[in-house]
Amino acid sequence: MDEKFKSLPLRDGVGIVVLNKNNKIFVAKRIDNPKNYWQMPQGGVNQGEDFLKAAFRELEEETSIKSVKLIKELDGTITYELPDRLLGIIWKGKYKGQKQKWFLMKFTGEEKEINIQTKNPEFLEWKWIDLDQITDVVVDFKLHVYQELKEKIKKIIN
């Protein structure tokens, strides 16, 4: 990591693992990285906002999903740092990565509720995949995050 970025803080963030009735996981392809990388909904926590409120807000902002039931707040946090090619670019250069609190939620609505054509769209397309596939589709610098999530979620849903 370039020396000038080492002192940057990590951004507080949230991530949401959304399961459908068949325990498949919601993933979407980002507009700003349209290669074959998929991710779960995630985003930053606003000043004064608690993690769970931020998770519900981010989920709705990115996917229009409101019909969810919280299954579990996953223990601990998971951090990742941006690769050098993205440092100073993402988040207006204020952060070197994220420290994320993750939540497992069950989607209880109809699929027509899901709409990624939001006010500020982040995704090109979305799909449901098996839990084991999440580590096959994620961008390289978040692989360890998704590996850890996969292990935690397996213990809950199996």
3D structure, described in words:
The chain has 158 residues and is an alpha+beta fold. It has a single domain, classed as Nucleoside Triphosphate Pyrophosphohydrolase (Alpha-Beta Complex). The protein has helices at 3-6, 51-63, 134-137, 143-157; strands spanning 10-19, 25-30, 38-39, 42-44, 68-73, 78-81, 97-107, 123-129. The strands form two sheets. Strands 1, 4, 5, 6 and 7 form a five-stranded mixed β-sheet that branches. A three-stranded antiparallel β-sheet has the order 3-2-8, with no helix packed on it. A hairpin with a 7-residue loop joins strand 2 (25-30) and strand 3. It starts with a helix and ends with a helix. 30% of the residues are buried.
Write a concise synopsis of the structure shown:
This protein has 4 helices and 8 strands, in the order H-E-E-E-E-H-E-E-E-E-H-H. With 158 residues, the chain is of the alpha+beta class. Strands 1, 4, 5, 6 and 7 form a 5-stranded mixed beta sheet that branches. The chain has a 3-stranded antiparallel beta sheet with strand order 3-2-8, with no helix packed on it.
Order of SSEs, N→C? HEEEEHEEEEHH
* CATH topology description: Nucleoside Triphosphate Pyrophosphohydrolase
Q: How many DSSP helices?
A: 4
Helix-and-strand structural type: alpha+beta
Summarize the amount of helix as a percent range.
Answer: 10-25%
Q: Tell me the fraction of residues in β-strands, as a range.
A: 25-35%
Shape: globular
Number of separate strands: 8
Query: How many domains, as an integer?
Result: 1
CATH architecture: Alpha-Beta Complex
Major β-sheet, in short?
A: 5 strands, mixed
Overall average residue pLDDT:
94
Query: At the fourth CATH level, what is the homologous superfamily?
Result: Nucleoside Triphosphate Pyrophosphohydrolase
Which class in CATH terms?
Answer: Alpha Beta
Q: List low-pLDDT spans.
A: none
Task: Give the CA-CA distance, first to last residue.
Answer: 39 Å
Q: What does the radius of gyration come to?
A: 15 Å
